[in-house]
Specification:
This protein is mainly beta. The protein is built from six helices and 33 strands.
């Protein structure tokens, strides 16, 4: 695994890490990274209101601000934005993925701001650097709601050179009026490698277009969950378009006992939408540079691994069209950080002692705001893991994490009120047990947050008393228990279970004792893969999500009902061809995962999920 920014075995890590492989994704039939993480790890996911196939994942109960409290990394490129925009995991060609690693909890030392909830690390087949043979894979699917899905990947090797290409084109009418979407992507990586050096260039583009049907009231949802918002005619024509381009250079070298990595990436995003009859658009230019080194040394008492790193990020947004904000307003975010992490493994007992520290200098500006943020924040962590007997390891981790308000948050506050930095004191205790056919991990965590940043619709804001604003909450706490079980019952049957029990509560103030909105207190996911005969495979999954409160409902007066979904997929492999039939939401459950309290606080705006959908596919490998 490489969630620690370098490849190393996961068995002794003093932290909880879950891994999804390319084979897991293929067998499940997941079409996006978001779907794979939600289905296979039981992570709650909410339909993103910007359309398309993107979902907001919530690793540890942050609700509306989940995207700002977890970091997303793809082949070293940080995808988090400097505003409210969602990191677009659905734009990654799913066929190109080698593995997905989900680091639960505080990842601030290695990944910086906004990593209190965890880190999602996606490594593509090209990014893994593994030596592979020449290969071509083609996938085609058709299904409910006008689905047409085409994907292709190719690997070309010639001596020390290799070229990876991944392309996809997914089109669907989706399950609501004016919700049709088109997603097209292309990624190319060229690299040269030998036994100690790897260097390459990567580039890619993704285009997404989606209708925006808006939310439905409770009565409208009950009458017809597939309609667009009937209260406004523009819901039948509103849409959004986003184009993303990225390019990067990377070098990795093994010299003696040092592993050295240098990479720099450039990313642009152009967004344009028609909403409520008005155009809104912006351009984003982003760059990041990472230099890091890992050194291993043998000491008299054991082995020492030392990681040193430097990260530099620069993000700039320029508004190109807006109804109420001056055109040309510029927002920018800059950060520079140094970090150090050491791990000492005692030879006699196998005890692993870990310590880390990071210092980040950040500045954030927004053209329409008289305020700005210029701060230095430090993060630290201490960890220990101890083998108890073969296959069983216990660990503990303690540290702190932080984030500053994004440019949309600190520019929309009560007049004259500045948002303070959010900090969190994080503690985790866990254990993992691995036998030949069984793997079990158990994690308990607690994060006590000071000055948590979020939106309160009843706060005094720029438009007057009670008009809503971004604020610092009174103290909050995230606490929970996570259980993961993997069991190979036989050579033909695999089972997995993911359960999570979480509490996200206000500890004091006017909402004391209340649950943070959009956080289900329990989730349960069960998954099985059965191979009854050679070439035949049946994959099935059940996910249950408990009730939760809609966004903005700090009084906990409304509830999003609990729901259960069942997915099945049958596949038949004949030589180089795989034929598959998948059914999502087999029981045709009517449910929704995303809803917000309306501005009067008398009803909720609901974003319905799809009913039963059927997909037939053909995959060819050469």
């Amino acid at each position: 695994m490489s969630a620690t920014r370098f490849a190393e075995p996961a068995a002794s890590l003093p932290m909880g890490v879950s891994v999804i492989t390319a084979g897991d994704i293929e067998r499940s039939g997941a079409v996006t990274v978001n779907e794979a993480i939600s289905k296979l790890l039981g992570v709650p996911a909410r339909l993103d209101t910007s359309g398309g196939n993107n979902y907001t994942l919530d690793l540890r109960g942050f609700g509306e601000t989940a995207n700002s409290n977890q970091v997303v990394i793809v082949d070293g490129l940080r995808l988090n934005e400097g505003d409210f925009s969602v990191a677009g995991l659905s734009s990654i060609p799913v066929e190109s993925i080698e593995r997905i690693e989900v680091l639960r909890g505080n990842g601030a030392v290695l990944y910086g701001e906004g990593a209190t909830g965890g880190v999602i690390v996606v490594t593509t087949k090209a990014g893994s650097g593994a030596q592979r043979r020449n290969a071509v894979q083609v996938y085609g699917a058709t299904g409910s709601n006008g689905l047409r899905d085409l994907r292709a990947t190719a690997v070309l090797n010639a001596g020390n050179w290799s070229l990876d290409v991944a392309a996809d084109d997914r089109r669907s009418d989706n399950h609501r009026a004016n919700f049709a979407s088109v997603n097209q992507g292309l990624a190319v990586t060229a690299q040269w490698s030998n036994d100690w050096l790897r260097a390459g260039l990567r580039s890619g583009r993704n285009d997404q277009h989606s209708g925006l049907p808006g939310s439905l009231s409770t009565a409208q949802y009950a009458a017809n969950p597939w309609q667009a918002d009937p209260s406004r005619p523009s819901a039948l024509t509103d849409d959004g378009n986003v184009t993303k381009d990225h390019a990067g250079v990377f070098v990795e070298a093994d010299l003696a006992n040092w592993n050295l990595v240098a990479e720099t990436n450039q990313r642009t995003k152009k967004y344009m939408s028609l909403q409520f009859g008005s155009m809104y658009g912006y351009d984003v230019d982003s760059s990041n540079t990472s230099l890091r080194a890992r050194h291993e040394a043998a000491l008299g008492i054991g082995g020492l691994a030392l990681v040193l790193g430097y990260d530099q990020d620069d993000w700039k947004r320029r508004l190109t069209a807006a109804a109420f904000t001056p055109i040309g307003t510029v927002a920018d975010v800059k950060s520079e950080a140094y970090y150090l992490k050491s791990d000492l493994t005692l030879a006699e007992t196998g005890t692993r002692l870990s310590a880390g520290w990071r210092s980040s200098v950040m500045s954030k500006h927004e053209g329409a705001s008289v305020s700005a943020l210029n701060e230095t924040q430090d993060a630290w962590e201490l960890g220990v893991s101890q083998p108890l007997y073969p296959g069983l390891t216990a660990y503990a981790r303690w540290g702190n994490s932080f984030r500053l308000a994004n440019v949309d948050e600190f520019s929309f506050t009560a007049p004259g009120v500045a948002i303070q930095a959010q900090t969190s004191n994080d503690l985790e205790l866990g254990g993992r047990w691995a036998l030949k056919s069984s793997k079990v991990s158990l994690r308990w965590y607690r994060s006590d947050l000071t000055n948590e940043i979020g939106y309160d619709p009843s706060a005094n804001g720029p438009f007057g008393p009670g008009s809503g604003a971004n604020i610092n909450y009174d103290p909050t706490r995230r606490e929970g228990l996570e259980v993961d079980v993997r069991q190979a019952v036989s050579t033909a049957l695999d089972l997995s279970l993911n359960a999570a029990f979480r509490q996200a509560t206000f500890q004091s103030g006017p909402h004391s004792g209340k649950t943070v909105p959009l956080v289900p207190t329990q989730t349960l996911s069960f998954h099985t893969n059965w191979r009854p005969l050679a070439g035949h495979s049946l994959d099935a999954g059940v996910m249950w999500v408990s009730e939760q409160h809609p966004g903005g409902d700090f009084a906990n007066g409304f509830k999003i009902p609990a729901y259960t979904t069942v997915d099945v997929r049958y596949a038949y492999q004949y030589q180089q061809a795989e034929f598959a039939l998948g059914i999502t939401n087999l029981l045709n459950t009517s449910y929704y995962s995303q809803a917000y309290l309306n501005f009067l606080g008398t009803d909720v705006g609901i974003y319905p999920e799809a009913g039963r959908t059927v997909t037939a596919s053909l995959r060819l490998k050469f």
